[in-house]
């Protein structure tokens, strides 16, 4: 079945540094990938939609200069948290879209990356 | 705007049926989904239903859709301890966007 690999699964960094998270679709091509942020015991908050070969579309309230998204190929999207601060600590999840049976837009999720900024 | 609501907690005994309910607001949704999230993991697609259907069964899972009331439910028969997780209801809106509910935390007591 479709697999999305997300790396790293956990990262701890110092305040002010940048962190890159990778999201790869392993056995299918994903023209569209999504990045979410999840706070403890809360739902996923869509941060941005990443389209291969074009600029990402950010949701309202998400700083595009803070959360840099690059979707350079049909199997890889990256999220870079620049100049990270403790309030950026969160669980970041990516998903890739593919067509399921009967045309449903099926999202396959990565396992998530837990970022802790000290 | 679009909104998906679901109750936050559900507790059942092992072997009983679990019913998780969800309401949504976008009447133009074409597909509605149920995802499962285990601790520290990403989301796993459980099942989905096309909006012109009112029921879908897949082994222990039964999805009921009342499009008039914009109500979706997930029934898990013979609930097991391994079913303990957070279950997210989601609706697909235009442009491939999927709106998620806050998730229902299912506790299964042995």
What this model shows, in words?
Chain A has 118 residues and is an all-beta fold. Chain A is 0% helix and 55% strand. Chain A contains no helices and 11 strands. In chain A, strand 5 and strand 6 form a beta hairpin. The relative contact order of chain A is 0.32. Chain B is mainly beta. Chain B has strands at 4-6, 9-13, 18-24, 31-37, 43-50, 55-58, 61-66, 71-76, 85-92, 98-100, 104-109. In chain B, strands 2, 4, 5, 9, 10 and 11 form a 6-stranded mixed beta sheet that branches. The chains are: A mainly beta (118), B mainly beta (110). The A-B interface holds A 4, 6, 32, 34, 41-44, 46, 49, 93, 95, 97, 100, 102, 104-112, 114 and B 31, 33, 35, 40-45, 48, 50, 88, 92, 95-98, 100-103, 105.
Main beta sheet strand tally, sense and closure of chain B: 6 strands, mixed
Distance separating the two termini of chain B: 40 Å
State the share of residues found in helices of chain A, binned by percent. under 10%
Low-confidence stretches of chain A: none
pLDDT < 50 runs, ≥5 residues of chain B: none
The H/E string of chain B reads EEEEEEEEEEE
Backbone CA Rg of chain A: 14 Å
Structural class assignment of chain A: mainly beta
Largest interface, with counts of residues having CB < 8 Å to the other chain, equals: A-B, 25 and 22 residues
What's the assembly state of these chains? heterodimer
DSSP summary, beta strand count of chain A: 11
The Rg value of chain B, from CA coordinates, equals 13 Å
């Amino acid at each position: 079945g479709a697999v999305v690999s997300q790396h790293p699964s956990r990262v701890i960094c110092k305040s002010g540094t940048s962190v890159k998270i990778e999201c790869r679709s392993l056995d299918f091509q994903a023209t569209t990938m999504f990045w979410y942020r999840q706070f403890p015991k809360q739902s996923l908050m869509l941060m941005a939609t990443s389209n291969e070969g074009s600029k990402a579309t950010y949701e309202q309230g998400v700083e595009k200069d803070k959360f840099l998204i690059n979707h350079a190929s049909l199997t890889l999207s990256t999220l870079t948290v620049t100049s990270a601060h403790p309030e950026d600590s969160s669980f970041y999840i990516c998903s890739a879209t593919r067509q399921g049976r009967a045309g449903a837009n099926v999202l396959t999720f990565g396992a998530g990356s837990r970022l802790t900024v000290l | 705007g679009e909104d998906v609501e679901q109750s936050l907690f559900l507790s059942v005994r092992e072997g009983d049926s679990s019913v998780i309910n969800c309401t949504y607001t976008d009447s133009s949704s074409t597909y509605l989904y149920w995802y499962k999230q285990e601790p520290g993991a990403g989301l796993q697609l459980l099942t989905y239903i096309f909006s012109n259907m009112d029921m879908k069964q897949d082994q222990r899972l039964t999805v009921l859709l009342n499009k008039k009331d914009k109500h979706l439910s997930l029934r898990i028969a013979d609930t097991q301890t391994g079913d303990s997780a957070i279950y997210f209801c989601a609706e697909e809106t235009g442009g491939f966007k999927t709106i998620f509910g806050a998730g229902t935390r299912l506790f299964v007591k042995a």
